[in-house]
Write a structure and sequence with these properties.
Elements: H1 3-17, H2 22-48, H3 53-73, E1 76-80, E2 89-92, E3 108-110
Antiparallel strand pairs: 1-2, 2-3
Helix pairs in contact: 1-2, 2-3
Length: 112
Amino acid sequence: MRTNTQEAVLSAYIASIGKRTPREAAQDGADLCRLANSLNRMNEIACNSGLTERQERRKQNLQTRIKAVLERSGLVLNHFESDPRGYAVYLDLPDGSYNSFGGRECGYGIGR
């Protein structure tokens, strides 16, 4: 799915929760997509050649930053995925929507 579409979907859900203004929701959606894309690139590097210590710290930092954005926006993390062929981050959206073959229990994926 295109990043702009993911940003729009995420910002709509964040705004619907009511914890953030529409402008803040749009920024949170953009931040989540950007961080998830970076995490997916780290997953690709890990799969191809392994991670250095520095890259491992960066990956942990990206996950921490994603959790912080999710906490302030009111969305819930389902899980992180380390397989670079799929989405890097899966969320539980308020209405139970999903965009992967895993169904509702897998969640809504971003970061590809």
